Amino acid sequence: MDNLEFLFKPKSIAVVGASRYKEKVGNVVFRNLLSTFNGKLYPINPKAEDVEGVKAYKSVKDIPDNIDLGIITVPREVVPQVMEEFVEKGVKASIIITAGFREVGEEKLEYEVINIARKGGIRVLGPNTFGIITPEFNATFTYTDVKRGNIGLVVQSGGLGVYMLNWAQKFRVGISYMISLGNQADVKEYEVIDYLSRDAETRAIFVYLEGVSDGTSFLETLPDAVRRKPVVFLKGGTTSQGASAAKTHTGSLAGSFEVFKAAVKTVGGILIDNLHDMLNLAKILMYSEPISNEILVITNSGGHGVLVSDEIERNGLKMIEIPEWMKRELGKILPPTSIPKNPLDLTGDANRERYYNALKIVNSLNCTKLVIVQALPMVSCTDIARTISNFKGKGVIGITMGLDEDMALKILESTGIPAYTFPEDAVRAIRYYTSRPLPRKKIRTVQPIESAMELIKEKKSLKDYEAMKLMEIYGIKTPKWGTALSEDEAQQIADNIGYPVVMKISPDEPLHKTELKGVVVNVEKEDVKKVYAQLSKITKRVMIQQQLSGLEVYVGGLKDPVFGHVVLVGSGGIYVEVLRNVAYALSPVYEDEAQELLVESKIHDMLTARKRGYDENSLIRTIVSISRMIVDLNIKEMDINPVFVNEYGAFATDVRIVIS
Question: In CATH, which of 2.130.10.10, 3.30.70.1450, 3.40.50.720, 3.40.605.10 is domain 4-129?
Fold first, then answer.
């Protein structure tokens, strides 16, 4: 956090490249500062006596006072020289708005500039940044008027930053900070989020990222930040173009976005799907209305009540049950055609008085009151907006639908109550807000077992029988098994195991055996030698295993280049890449997280269906062990497919491992 205070709360600012031409970036930045910054402001322009009526200097070194923040808008070739002057002057922080560095292949120039800055202890935002807006000043090249508020914006795209500012202005969302990260050559996204989480002006933080600079620091810093205030993420670059199949299912299943989702869940962040959801969630986070996942719908339109009830169920929220005494009180104010229940239909002739009386009766319910008004001849949206305003602090959200809906929105927003024009938008926002995961810190202590280290020593991948031995070393159950190099040996192993058995090829490299027609099930005593002869044409070595029944589950692991080791859980067998009901978690995985993986991937429902008594706890222990093993041994890719789960436990039957 060194010198970040000088970046966000400087007492003096110099703008290098402050042009006299109003269409130039340096001029726009300077004019924005001139109209917003109350500290000392210095334009740097060697060809001008003044800029916008303010005395100009040829170099920052010519300024008689100390400079906290230096903003650079000159061509990229000049930036190293300017940074040298900043170091000589003792500037504490810098914003490099100039583009044309690493983003266009000029890594060397970017490294040069940052190395110069580090000599002087200068913290640098950028380069290729749109600038920043703080409660004290606007150092961007936008003309947008910014409404002051309590939402912090952190963006990796300058263009999206401009759009979000326009969006905030249009929908009356107040901004505390807007920080364009640029190339993140020095100041990183996790540092900025941490800083804003400590800022009294900021209530919630919205972050647009295309990539994470340092996964380890992200996972270390963000849980503490999220405990202070909500952090919402929108990710760019979520699709995988041209992903090639790898030696394990993991290679084709694990896209960077899925791992990013797991990382956001780990740190307790909220991951949204689009900018529309960002706006809707911001409306809840801007205000202090208590919102829960239990909902009472109050409406004057039965159709809207039905539709929003469907949406509530689809989003995994709950419709609250109205207490009997409350139903009796509601019956006194409702027409005979309306039955007091949830959704509470006040009927089409409901006026302001009926809304007020209904809200007064349900006022004490500890739930979210979703109040919908469809404008009709006997009632207007503005009437009901004023009525709802009387119940601020009681978990109310307004839905205004009709000709005067915009005015009604403004009335509710001025009161500090979240308001929408579509109930579905409100429901999605409630779901995002109430389903926030608890933040966790992942402590990755490497404690490899000596025999496991010996087994993988100097190997790029494991043979399948070596992988089976590794499972046993880590306490993971396996079926009875053995490998044979002859028909007689295969017969002896199968006789010892008992029938029927499974026979499969045993290659030196990890392969998908089913695709090579290398697996034969239900092999009886009289067929062993014949099956061995068939399989040995593919690989000389053949594995024989006890044949199991039960649910086939896929458990995988990988080392992500950003966030490190990750565990994957989903449906097993040949359908793993077809169904793709895979859940992800960062290692190490604890037992409660393993349970969450099973619920998210629907494996829990499959295990508990029809009360078969399958040993779910054994599978949980297997997932936990795998999550530690891949960290201990620094495994690049692995999958166990399938893990057979039955009433006797969870058994790893086919294991493929690629060592990092």
Answer: 3.40.50.720
